[in-house]
Amino acid sequence: MKRIIALGTAAVLAAAAMTGCSVKDDSGGGGGKGKKQITFLVFETPNQTPQVWDAAIKRVTDKYPDISVKKLVSPTQDRTAYAKQLLTSGQLPDVMIAVSPAGFAESGNLYAWQPNELTDFTYPNNGAVNGKIYQLPANSQTVPVVYFNKSLFAKAGIATPPKTYGEMMSDAEKLKAKGITPFVVGGGKDIHDALGPTFAGILGTDLYAKNPNWMHDRRAGKVKFADPDYVKAAGKLSDLASKGYIDKRMLSQDYAATQAAFLSGKGAMYAMGNWFAAAADDPKTKPSFDIGQFFWPSDDGKLVVPTFTGGGLLVNAHSKNLEAAKKFALAYQLDKTNLDASTKNDGLFPAIKGYTPPANSGPVFKTGYDMFKQAESQSAVVPAFGFEAGDDGMLPGVADQWSASMGDLVTGRKSASDVGKFLDSEWQKAS
Amino acid sequence: MAVEVARPPTRTGSPAVPRRRRPVWPRVWHFLSFGAPGVLVYVCFVLAPIAVSVGYSLTNYNPFGPKTRFVGLSNYKDLFTDSEFLTSLKVTTILTLIVVIVPNVLGLGVALLLDRRGWLYNALRSVFFTPVVLSSVVVSIIWTRLLADDGLVDQALRGVGISHPPGWLSDPSYALYSVGAILSWQMLGFCVVVYLAGLQGIPQELHEAAEIDGAGPVERFRKITWPLLAPALTINTIVMLITGFKAFDHIQVITNGGPGTGTTATIAFNVLQTGFNANRQGYASAMAIVMLIIVAVASAVALRILQKREVSL
């Protein structure tokens, strides 16, 4: 009898250990009788709070009660790296948002959307990988817009926003002379998001304005990071720091702290994606000063607007509930309330045909949206360096080194030329 | 005269008594019922992943890449000419040295101060131990805020007249040492507790006898306390050594390997970046195996050296 009890206990313990350490796979129909359960990978930011995600998911599941959704939250802003970890352990979510499709798509892990499923999207071919669309091209994001503190500009005697890069540098000098930090930047664990938009502004106006296919050419080996165009642009970022327009010490700030620093008046300009409008218009975070905005100026004053269109949902091609996952993804992406919410909560510009933002959108959002529409009509849009996706983006692994290399430029640890050579060697390793 | 030696009765001479042999199976079942769950868990979650990693390290495995093929030891050969890996090895070594030395030295000092009776000392022991039980992510976030440009540390320094305090986390010359200090702060309580346990195991009579013989406090520490704390030193050194070598989460949250390329990137951080960002999982596995070997060898050597000086009463 004792033996049976001991064996039974051992079996129960072993089973408990095994089940406790594995992920329950109930995507085949869990989440209630007759319901199809899908997993949905999201990420949280100061704008995209848990409540925002829950409400957005609920709107779709209310419409489709046969679908239940298990929300998975990426532990860091780098949801792509987290999705890779989940893939490696056989747990790739059924639906993901704002994950780079690179790698996942080529290896057959993502569902390729059919043209008839993309008829509602303004740019149905954006972000293609080998000619196929794996990520719904749901919204456009201008990266960066330069937001500025009107009070600090006035204090430094700057009446109008700069039209050329030279004017911006001269304004930065005036601000510095008044003891005001010209540019608010960040780094730390979020260097890509906190410093990347500033560099994307420089690279957009210097590199992509000359050659919008630069990244494709890099993939083809026709251009290099060590070429004079990239090195010149990298040198500009380096100069911002060496001239004291960027406070190197701000590199320790993560994304949230960087945003908070600008909102609390710790610097005059903040080059950031248009999603910042959400925080600028939110009564809870709205600053006491007025915010103005302009696009990162080019040397000659020609309008160049780095923009990324994509960022939408992706579906796991091997999902046990593929149809439910597709239905959820499209419904989530096209739901008017969700789109309105995305403009309010994340300042996004939905790239959906016929969509107009809500009339009660905040002033910073409205101004940014109108500026973008104007730039779009003038064909001034170029890719946003470091924020591209699919065939338009850097090779896997290089993007991280590109982000880290910005730290080298700002701290002066490496010259622009050395950074260019370093990135070429990383590209070589990744290819 | 012949002496007849009485021979002991032989078994054959005695009536046959069948010996009752203990059956084997109950003993096997007994062993299995107690040992199997532990062994199973160990095999599944420790040995098998190591074996799988060794297997991957001999391939060019990339979950998104072309077909995986066997590459022999080429990943290992490449590692030793890879400047990123060598930098991360250097970073890890410096971080490990900080984490082994600082908490050990400070921990011993604090333990000596707290080795007294009374509610205040009990409360202080809890205070020192609190960071150990905190999540490393929480600790990292707290210290990121404290060491930020407008954080409490810099505000305090400005308050005492240092108008330009160092960029603790933003200056490549300081960042690694700042992370080392944060890790040391978190692990200090562990060393304190282990040393306190060691101190409380030293009989008071030894100190009293030495005092009667005229030994002063320094002499008593050198001749009695320090030798008898050897087991505690062994435990602390090994645990800190392993903590330093596998440092990852603090790096990920505080600096993301920066500022700049690789200034605070440890091997563990590099493994994750290479495996899950660059998708070179075969190569990352080779890094992980090299790290495993380094940790195992360093721990074994340290253990052997430190155990030699252990004494027992």
UniProtKB/TrEMBL annotation, chain A:
It holds the Pfam family SBP_bac_1. Keywords: Signal, Transport. Residues 1-19 form the signal peptide. InterPro entries: Bact_solute-bd_prot1 (IPR050490), SBP (IPR006059). The keyword Transport applies. PANTHER family: ARABINOSE-BINDING PROTEIN-RELATED, OSMOPROTECTIVE COMPOUNDS-BINDING PROTEIN GGTB. Belongs to the bacterial solute-binding protein 1 family. This is Extracellular solute-binding protein. It comes from Actinoallomurus vinaceus.
From TrEMBL, chain B:
It is found in: Cell membrane. It is a multi-pass membrane protein. The chain crosses the membrane at residues 28-52, 94-114, 126-148, 174-197, 228-248, 283-306. Its main location: membrane. Keywords: Cell membrane, Membrane, Transmembrane, Transmembrane helix, Transport. InterPro entries: ABC_transporter_permease, MetI-like, MetI-like_sf. The keyword Hydrolase does not apply. Residues 89-302 form the ABC transmembrane type-1 domain. This is Sugar ABC transporter permease.
